[in-house]
């Protein structure tokens, strides 16, 4: 008798172990053995056989809709065994009836018999079960039962269409999935606990066990469905709370990959629908930090949660979103598959898709707040698992462009172009960098032509943009050559390309704008005005078109109309410094220095309002919050203080490099140190001080002009613009030797600075070096033949040399050029691609 009892205890222990571990083959063998040894246990044996056959079948053929028909025959035997335990014997063994009904509900769900499954759950009185401690296997069965009931309710909607019934149905489904989710998390925590207890002491494997295969589609649905239903019923805050509850549960090995999905989805919900007053931070969320009631124990059906005094709790939606996405990124990087072996292809693709989904959300979030450096760091980490993956490379290139690291961005774009052999956009982006930032016009033109070739072979509706970029390339090359024949050919090629762009897309305002700009460069003002007006008809808010129209009006000597238009545009774009600068120059030339001085003073106040906070915070330049002033009034790409200069891009870039090197030398030899904060803001202030100095000189206020030049010099001592202004000051004071030295220094830094060349020629004239004056002025005329000041100065020099015919020709040329000369060169308008 004792031996039999011990044998029974052993069999019972093996059965419990087999159920807990999901060893269904062994469980069926034990049940068959139990049935043959103890006929009185036949009911229990049939239950175990039915359970084993059901679970082993569903492991092979998961309970999804496409497997329903197969399950109706494949589960017939398991169903028969389970039904045999519902009879009188089963009632006598009442402790089994609950599990039998729950497993029969699961069986019918797998077969697609949803109403029958609900009937069994009603017989089991599933909704009124007491929350008590359950064995691990029972936790799983109950969790699956609640999940299946919720899924069956979705398949069997209420017959009544009343709002009350609909709300009751929604509430019942959500309650099922919430209970199922809590029980699932608790079950998985218990599984981890048992795994730790059963592990061999002193042994360790670098590869953790993979219990995820035991979760199955039912429990995965249980964990993810409730917040989705909350969102579908408009209860967004409840969805957020549900996600938080699941994420605050202690992590298990089986939920590691699932937590990546949950964190990403919660971030998406917060990004899309929870902002401002709608947002409730976790501290005020009673589901996360419930009020503790004395004497009330925590439910055994709730998952164990992280607790502690030093937990970080986000205070705003932005903090929570960024925290969630950074956690998601860490998990995505951890799960990344680095091996390129074919057998890991599916796993590698799955992990990569998860990672890129996180990176895209991270980009949307961080770029919105200007944290481009954080986005870039994330994409740097992504490089190790992004071999031959163009999406991540493209995002990295865009990050580098936003950070102002254009040479590096161009290198990354070349890799993108290789990875995407038919795509047009990467070629256009590469061309834009070459045109706008690195001044590699020939290379930019090559990328534009390659883009057109790709567009021709694989149309992507970008033909107009391809022709436009080609035209920009030709136009920039034309502006940077002094050979007349070559310049004319390039200008004609630019016009042809702009016309093709306009014909390809007649509604493209940029094509009309660039046609107007090119005609303006050529001195064909009537055609230029016609095209710029067409551009404004297509896009009345295009600032470069408005600036071009102002300059064309000034070239037509319609000063009042130009000022009136400027005032209207400045009201719409009060932060645009370029517009204010143009206004000051118009006022200086036509209304007098006092009016211009008022405008320049407003510019200084505007600079303080726009940039002082940035300077104090020492933030990165790319976090600039003013979209209208980012690309205007740039010291290196347009010589705005030099209204008589052609402001050639390539030479200005070379000058900026010389100036930067000289400033570094100055800082090493003296107490000079660069100002903190975005250097572009300081360079902008330099231009304002120089404008003020120019205005003070015009009204003979020498002391104030000196003060303004000194302010500019304190910021950036080695600028050729500052040296030129110092030369003008000495020239006004008739200190010609000192003026000559200043102009020579300016030209040494920027050999194409025509304003310095014009005044150096005059200074040579005043000093009696007429031949040197003539040579300097002819060099200036070759660089920029459209400057009337150069021709006038040359005429004065030739007249002093008694070369009256040549002097007369120069003066005539000056008069001819002056009639179509704008208040500022057309090149002072920043290059635009939008």
Task: Describe the protein in words.
The chain is mainly α and 834 residues long. Among the domains are: 225 residues, Serine Threonine Protein Phosphatase 5, Tetratricopeptide repeat (Alpha Horseshoe), CATH 1.25.40; 148 residues, Alpha Horseshoe (Serine Threonine Protein Phosphatase 5, Tetratricopeptide repeat). The protein has 37 helices and no strands. Helix 1 packs antiparallel against helix 2 and helix 32 runs parallel beside helix 34. The protein is elongated and about 135 Å long. The chain starts with a helix and ends in a 16-residue tail after the last helix. About 6% of the residues have low confidence.
Number of helices, counting only DSSP H or I runs of 4 residues or more? 37
At the first level of CATH, the class of the domain at 2-194 and 214-245 is: Mainly Alpha
Proportion of beta-strand residues: under 5%
Question: What are the segments in which pLDDT stays under 50 over at least 5 consecutive residues?
Answer: 200-213, 619-651, 667-671
Name the structural class: mainly alpha
First-to-last CA distance: 93 Å
Shape: elongated
Named CATH architecture of the domain at 2-194 and 214-245:
Alpha Horseshoe
Q: Count of DSSP E strands?
A: 0
Largest sheet: none
Mean pLDDT over the residues: 82
CATH topology of the domain at 2-194 and 214-245: Serine Threonine Protein Phosphatase 5, Tetratricopeptide repeat
Considering DSSP H and I runs of 4 or more, what fraction of the residues is helical? 55-70%
Radius of gyration: 39 Å
